[in-house]
Design brief:
The complex is a heterodimer of chains A (293) and B (705).
Chain A (H helix, E strand, L loop, with lengths): L2 H15 L2 E2 L14 H4 L8 E10 L15 E10 L5 H11 L9 E5 L2 E3 L4 E10 L2 E12 L2 E2 L5 E6 H9 L8 E3 L2 E2 H19 L2 H20 L3 H20 L5 H28 L3 H5 L4
Parallel strand pairs in A: 1-2
Antiparallel strand pairs in A: 2-3, 3-9, 4-6, 5-6, 6-7, 7-8, 7-9, 10-11
Chain B lengths: L3 E7 L4 H21 L7 E6 L2 E6 L9 E9 H4 L8 H10 L7 E5 L2 E10 L4 H14 L20 E8 L2 E2 L3 E2 L2 E2 L3 E3 L8 E3 L5 H9 L7 H16 L7 H12 L6 E6 L9 H9 L5 E4 L5 E9 L6 H29 L20 H18 L4 H13 L7 H5 L7 H8 L4 H9 L14 H20 L13 H15 L5 H10 L11 H19 L4 H9 L5 H14 L5 H15 L16 H22 L3 H22 L7 H19 L22
Antiparallel strand pairs in B: 1-3, 1-7, 2-3, 4-6, 5-6, 7-8, 9-10, 11-12, 13-15, 14-15
Helix pairs in contact in B: 1-4, 6-7, 8-9, 10-11, 10-15, 11-14, 11-15, 13-14, 14-15, 15-16, 15-17, 15-18, 16-18, 17-18, 18-19, 19-20, 20-23, 21-23, 21-24, 22-23, 22-24
The chains are: A alpha+beta (293), B alpha+beta (705).
Chain lengths: 293, 705
């Protein structure tokens, strides 16, 4: 199964389950959780099911396109189901079967992995899912987002697409993966990985990024104040990415690190508060639609 | 009498949670059954990652009827002078549903009380268990719990099934939105789907699960894995001791249907330091490394997978690829580290902040080198040891900048054994670096090498004085810089050296090395000394010393740890002697009477006005020196016994016959001076025995000052 078929098959599978298939959110971010389809919609009482693929940028993980396993940008397949169903594990295993993994022939394991995003003020309990020792998914019951207790609780599955594709295609180097129609992952991304690694580790203008961080932070607060939730949230993501770039350049000292993460978390909290209030004022439209109210 | 079988089926419970959860389950079952007057036989537990199981043999069908006394008001409060029931009696009788005239009376330790004898009708066991089982389930405490339902009842992981049988009948209740029944689940991947359990028979339950790829008994799984590991190692070597049991315990609770697969990695990775390879195998992957008879790793490892022996090839292939990727990374990092070695990172440490206000790690290593010198002198270490420790001090933080420590933080310190040797340093240097983080746990092993001891102590002193100089003091349960643990470690290390050393001058030296001027706070050393005194006091109590003895020993100083411990030890022995009360009285009375008397001046024998006084003066002059000598040699028990022998009886007679505070001022002053000298001969060097609690008052709780 090539890379694009993997994305399409998983999307189809979860869409059939009842998920809204979203598109990646058009902004740099470190993980699929940042997509408002997860971060914001995990909050509040409205039912919600979604699937989307999310390019996830981790500048510090870049290896100039030379490492067979690590890249500065990888792809997460993100599924969020709220409220978490009683057969949460079974529907996940079904999705593995859907992409052609004969789970009975492999060693599939659920290993304790409590998840925490200090930037988003989010915590969850769950597992990393192993396939013959390889971590292929994070499976998490959210407990808190932006410091708010989740109610109802949702379950999140984050698939590491490159890793799964390497298993399915039997490849030892992710750049050798078939993306689709004769084009490889390397054809598409190796040069990009080299350039972004150069940028992330060597060329990024530290002074500019520091300035941008400050600017984004101010703008976020101003917009949140005005009740412009989504534009304000865009600036949370921009802040987070600026921080990740500074971190990759080792431009943030150990003592500053915690404080800077705290600043992003406060922004995320402000926006989340505004979102929760806004949905309430709107009368929780998805709750109405589901016929719950 | 029927058996009870109860199984909580959950999504995978973290391995480390299982054993403590089973203990709690068994204990609260025993307690609840007892309180419910349900007799029973043996209680057994079993578990896999997906279930916690409780089995109780022979539970009584129903509770016996019983009587219970409900205690009411005291007779005094219940009836007035005329013997008529008061409001209190009427209220109690109403609440119990009886007439006031039916109230019974009985004597209690607090006087005579009214009571009502109530008859408790025994209920069927199933009915009682339907209440007990949810309670003991919710009572299990986990390191972390989660919620997953609107009712927000916590458990380690979501509960998905409840099997509850008494004999062949279901014990009906609902918990976590799950209705109890007779169903359990097979292995979710190898044999998914429900299993009906007809009755609460442990063997039948076990076998039904076994047929569905679940070995429910952890002891059996562990034995099976151990056996398979041992046979898979055959001809190669063995799993190193430092990982075997720890991994085995964990892995046993990560699987329901284990089998062991032997895998291999490329021999080229054998040039990666063994400790790195071991970390890559064990930290994330829970692979078992294999060590040959020569103590070096072999290019093989073992995987415990959660499935039967079929398909081993597929599993081997997958796991080998995973380890290959990890070892490639490790090898890449290790090779990069070879370029700079440890020395190559020393300059880089200037850019790594230690604690805000305490400079960089480079500054810290400079301080440690200087401090090591001071410690070597104070502890009487030889020049060679001091030189080794200095060399190690300069290098001891360099591994923070190595790639390997970036990837495997747990190897911090340890990896320097390998890297220092690779760079050509003597083995003792690498050992000292690795040991300077010891003890790694509160009761962990202490550094074993002389240079490691110096450097480890220097590290702790620098950390502690640095925080105290910045005012970062621990308070209540807040101790973010682990200063309690570090102080405990420092005390243990000093104790182990057995050397008499004054701590305060060393703390002052350590403070003088800190960045100026913001670390110059003059009170830092005194505060730290007080903090260390409190830890020392706590240590004494932890070792079983009574409060008052520990306080008495502190009263004669705590700056010299070994001396303090020797004095405390002597006191603990002496306090068992028949002569102890006399010794305490002698010291206490001389102390009390001379307290507040003007200081200074020499004893003038010409002013002695009483024979007993003269006798005491002569005893002090003649034998005082002898006692002091014993004290100086640290022979505190002998010194104490001699003191008691020399002064005890005479002092006793003196105090019963001589009036101390006479009007003649010079005679009085001289007399007080004599008594003070006698008192100080003991209290200044051994212990302040006025702290000894002789009566029934409860001892003070803290060290105080």
């Amino acid at each position: 199964m090539d890379f694009q078929s993997l994305i399409l098959t998983l999307t189809r599978h979860w869409a059939d389950y009842g998920c809204v298939a979203l598109l990646p959110y058009d902004m740099e971010k470190g993980a699929g959780t940042f997509n408002p389809g997860t971060f914001l919609r995990a909050l509040g009482p409205e039912p919600w099911k979604t699937i989307y693929v999310e390019p996830s940028r981790r500048p510090a993980d870049g290896r100039y396109g030379e490492n067979p396993f690590r890249v500065g940008m990888h792809h997460q397949m993100q599924v969020l189901v709220k409220p978490a169903p009683a057969d949460a594990q079974k529907i996940y295993l079904d999705s593995l079967k859907a992409i052609g993994i004969d789970i009975a022939a492999h060693d599939v394991r659920f290993i304790e992995d409590d998840w925490e995003s200090p930037t988003l003020g989010a915590t969850g309990l769950g597992w990393q899912v192993w396939l013959d020792g390889l971590e292929i998914t994070q499976y998490t019951y959210f407990q808190q987002v932006a410091g708010f207790a989740c109610d109802p609780i949702c379950v999140e599955y984050t698939y590491g697409l490159e890793r799964i594709a390497m298993v399915l295609q039997g490849k030892d180097n992710l750049f050798d993966l078939e993306w689709g129609n004769g084009v490889t992952y390397g054809d598409l991304r190796r040069r990009e990985e080299f350039e972004t690694s150069r940028y992330n580790f060597e060329a990024a203008d530290v002074a500019m990024l520091h300035r941008l961080f400050e600017t984004y932070e101010k703008e976020c607060l101003r917009l949140a104040e005005m009740g412009l939730v989504m534009p304000a949230y865009d600036y949370v993501m921009k802040c987070s990415h600026a921080f990740n770039l500074l971190d990759a350049r080792r431009a943030i000292s150990v003592s500053e690190r915690t404080a800077t993460i705290g600043r992003v978390r406060r922004l995320a909290r402000r926006v989340a508060e505004a979102w929760v209030r806004q949905r309430e004022e709107m009368g929780h439209p998805l709750l109405k639609k589901a016929g719950v109210v | 009498m029927p058996d009870l079988l109860y199984e909580i089926g959950a999504e995978e419970i973290p391995a480390g949670y299982i054993a403590p959860a089973l203990e709690q389950l068994a204990a609260s079952a025993a307690r609840e059954l007892g309180e419910a007057r349900l007799t029973h036989g043996a209680i057994r537990t079993a578990a896999t990652p997906r279930r916690l199981t409780l089995h109780v043999a022979g539970v009584a069908d129903r509770q016996p009827d019983a009587e219970e006394d409900a205690l009411g008001p005291s007779v005094k409060a219940a009836f007035d002078a005329q013997g008529a029931p008061t409001k209190a009696a009427l209220g109690f009788a109403r609440a119990q549903g009886v007439e006031p005239a039916q109230l019974l009376r009985k004597m209690t330790p607090r006087g005579e009380y009214c009571y009502v004898r109530k008859r408790l009708q025994g209920r069927p066991a199933a009915e009682v268990l339907a209440e007990i089982l949810p309670r003991i389930t919710l009572a299990i405490g986990f390191p972390k719990s989660m919620v997953w339902l609107p009712e927000r009842k916590p458990f380690a992981r979501p509960v998905r099934s409840l099997l509850a049988l008494l004999g062949d009948a279901v014990i009906p209740f609902t918990l976590f939105g799950v209705v109890s029944g007779r169903r359990t689940e097979g292995h979710p991947i190898l044999s998914p789907g429900p299993i009906e359990i007809p009755r609460a028979d442990l063997t039948a339950y076990r076998e039904a699960l076994r047929a569905r790829c679940v070995i429910v008994d952890g002891v059996e799984r562990k034995a099976l894995i151990r056996r398979e590991i041992e046979s898979a190692c055959a001809g190669l070597g063995r799993v190193p001791d430092d990982v075997f049991e720890r991994l085995l315990d964990e892995v046993t609770n990560l699987v329901q249907y284990p089998s062991v697969t032997r895998c291999a990695f490329h021999a080229e990775f054998l040039d990666v330091p063994d400790m790195v390879t071991k970390a890559a195998m064990t930290e994330h992957q829970r692979y078992f490394p294999i060590e040959g008879p020569d103590g070096r790793l072999r290019a093989h490892f073992l995987v415990v997978s959660d499935r039967g022996p079929e398909q081993a090839g597929l599993i081997r292939h997958g796991n080998e690829k995973v380890l290959h990727a990890r070892l490639s990374d490790a090898q890449f990092f290790d090779r990069k580290d070879r370029d700079l070695n440890l020395s190559g990172h020393i300059e880089g440490l200037r850019g790594v902040a230690f604690l805000k206000g305490l400079g960089s790690y480079y500054d810290k290593t400079q301080r440690l080198a200087a401090l090591v010198d001071a410690l070597a002198e104070a502890l009487g270490a030889d020049a060679g040891t001091a030189a080794t420790a200095r060399q190690a001090a300069a290098l001891c933080k360099a591994d923070l900048l190595t790639e390997i420590v970036g990837e495997f933080p747990a190897l911090q310190g340890e990896i320097s054994r390998v890297y220092a040797a690779r760079e050509g340093h003597p083995e003792a240097v690498g050992t000292a670096i690795a040991e300077h983080y010891m003890p790694r746990a509160a009761d962990g092993a202490l550094p074993a090498s002389p240079a490691g001891t110096l450097l480890s102590l220097a590290e702790k002193l620098d950390n502690m004085i640095g925080c105290f100089a910045l005012g970062l003091l621990p308070s209540g349960s807040q101790d973010p810089y682990a200063l309690r643990r570090q102080s405990q470690a420092a005390l243990r290390i000093i104790e182990r050296t057995g050397r008499r050393v004054a701590l305060k001058p060393l703390l002052r030296r350590a403070q003088a090395l800190l960045p100026k001027p913001h670390c110059d706070a003059p009170e830092a050393v005194d505060r730290l000394a007080d903090f260390l005194r409190d830890r020392l006091f706590q240590t004494a109590l932890d070792r079983g010393a009574p409060h008052d003895l520990a306080r008495a020993a502190l009263g004669a100083g705590h700056d010299d740890i070994c001396d303090f411990l020797a004095r405390l030890d002597a006191l603990r022995g002496l306090s068992q002697d028949a002569g102890w009360p006399e010794l305490v009285a002698a010291v206490e009375r001389t102390g009390n009477i001379s307290r507040g008397a003007p200081e200074g001046g020499a004893i003038d024998p010409a002013l002695f006005a009483e024979p007993l006084e003269r006798d005491l003066g002569e005893r002090l002059a003649r034998r005082g020196r002898e006692i002091e000598d014993l004290e100086t040699q640290g022979r505190y028990a002998e010194a104490s016994r001699l003191y008691a022998q020399v002064f005890g009886p005479t002092l006793h007679e003196f105090f019963s016959k001589v009036f101390v505070n006479v009007d003649d001022a010079p005679v009085r002053a001289n007399r007080l001076r004599l008594l003070r000298e006698i008192n100080r001969l003991y209290t200044a060097r051994i212990a302040d025995l006025s702290q000894i609690v002789t009566g029934t008052q409860s001892p003070p709780r803290d060290a105080g000052s």
